[in-house]
Amino acid sequence: MYDCTIVGGQIITPNGPIFADLALSGDSIAAIGHGLNGERVIDASGCYVIPGGVDPHVHLQLALGGLVSTDSFSSGTIAAACGGTTTIVDFADPQPGQSMGDALAARRAEADGQVAVDYGLHMTIPTWHGQSAERLAEVPAMLAAGCATFKLYQAYARMELDDVALHRSMAAVAKAGGRVVLHSETGPLLDHLRAEAVAAGHIGAIWHERTRPACLEATAIHRAAEIAHLTGCPVHIFHVGCAEGVVEIVTAKSRGVAITGESCPHYLLLTADKHLGGPDGNLYICAPPLRSAADQSALWRALADGGLDLISTDHCPWTRSEKAQRSFAQVPGGVPGIESRLSLLHHFGVNRGHISLARWVELCATAPARLMGLPRKGILLPGYDGDVVIFDPKREKTISTDTLHEAADWTPFAGMTVTGWPRTVLLRGRVIVADEEYIGAAGDGEFIKRSVKCE
Ligand code: MN
User: Residue 130: its pLDDT value, please?
Assistant: First the structure.
C-alpha cells in the first residue's frame, strides 16, 4: 500500500502520454503502473499528470534602486504553486564589498521559512567580483554550498562585465564545475544609445525598444559563446527574445559550444507595439525588450526544434505606479508571469500546434531541472521527488489579476483566455494546491542544493 496514488490520468512522459497510475511514498515517487493501491487516492480522470514545473529565472523581493519587486518569497511562491511550478531559482546578489558567502546567507534568511515551493539561488558575479581572480576565489565554496550556477551580466552598471572579466569569471566557474547563466546584451553601447535618445528629448516607452536593437543582443551572445568556448564553461543564455539571438545560439551549438538558451512567455506572446498608444506603454518595459511577430515565429520554431532549451518567466513584477515614470529611461524593468507559464505554453504552444505535450513538459520542467542541477526534479520516475501537477487540459480561464495570486496590480497577459490550467499540485508528496485552491503553508518549500556537471 502506497501513501498516495494518482489514478485515471494521462502521464506525460518524455516519449509522450501514457495512461497509467502514479504512486507516491513519503516525499518521493514510488511507482508507475496499473492497479496501484494507495491510502489516499487522487482522481486525475481527464487530466494530464506532469512533473512540477521548474522556473529557473525569477526575481522575488528584488531590491532595486530603492524599490523592492512586488512579490515576496511568500506571495511569489504561492503564485508559482498555483500555476503548477514547484521549484524556482532566484538570485543572491553580492553588494560591493560583500562576500558571496555573506550574500548567500542573507538571501537564504529572506527565503527560508517563507517559500511555498522548493527553491535554489544563482550566485551573481557582479563587476566588483569579476574584476579580480582573488575575488573569484569563493566560487568553489559556492558550489559546495549548493549554488552551482553563476549569473553574469554583459549590461547594467555595477553588474556589467567586460570581455576580460567575463573570461576570468567563466574560467573560474568552469574550473569549479559550475555553469554560467547570462544576461546577454551589449551594455556599453545600449547605455550610449539611451543617453542619446534622452538628450534628444525622447521619453516614450517605445524608445526602450529602439535603443536596445536586436543586433546588440546577438553580438553579445556571439562574444559570450566564444569566451565560453575558450574557457570550457557551459553557458545558458537568459531571456532570448529575438531571431538574431536564436541564430547565434544555434550556430554556436553547431560548432560544439556548450551553450543553451531560454525564452519567456512575454517574448512569445507580446510585441513591442505594446509600448505604443497610451500611458500603459511603460508597463511592458523589460530587458531585453519585446520584439516583433517575426521574432515570435523564430522563437516558437527554436523551442520546437531544440534551438532553444527551456522556458522561464524572468518574473520581476512592479506595480502600476512604480512603472508610471515620466521617461522610459526611469522605468524599473521587468514583468510578472510566474503563475501562468505552464498554462500559456500549453494553450499557445501545445493547443496551437507549435510543440508537443512531451516537449511542453521538457521545456517547463525536465530541461530546466537538468540544466540547473536539480537531479530529483523535472521528471516522473520512481526515486524522484513527488512534485506532481494534475493539469486539466479542458479548464478554460481568462487571465486576470482578480484570480491570479501574483501581488502586482496588473499582468501583461490580462484578458488572454487559455484552455488548460493546473488543478492539483503536490510538493514532495504533499498536496499544496487542491482543486485550484492553495492549501499549503509558508516554509513547505526548502532550499535545494544544486550541482551541475560540465558537459
Ligand atoms: Mn532576470
Answer: 76
